[in-house]
Design a protein that fits this description.
Strands 1-3-2 form a three-stranded antiparallel β-sheet. It has one helix and three strands. It has one domain: Heat Shock Protein 90, CATH 3.30.565. The chain is of the alpha+beta class.
Length: 65
């Protein structure tokens, strides 16, 4: 298990179920393929990519191999 954490602004609850969708982005310059592709690669290798976030506190992405 690898956890990648930040102490940024967090992800809004209404966006949590969308962030792994292909081409979804909340950034002006984003393409929306990074998280979707990362999750697909993990699943192809029998792993998982998950996220937990609290607005105002930060986000943790967990890679389970």
């Amino acid at each position: 298990i690898i956890d990648i954490a930040d102490n940024g602004c967090g992800i809004k609850p209404d966006l949590m179920d969308k962030i792994f969708m292909p081409f979804f982005t909340s950034k002006k310059e984003g393409s929306g393929i990074g998280l979707s592709l990362s999750r697909q690669i993990m699943q192809m290798h029998k792993g998982a990519l998950s996220v937990k976030s609290k607005p105002g506190e930060g986000t943790v992405f967990t890679l389970s191999f």
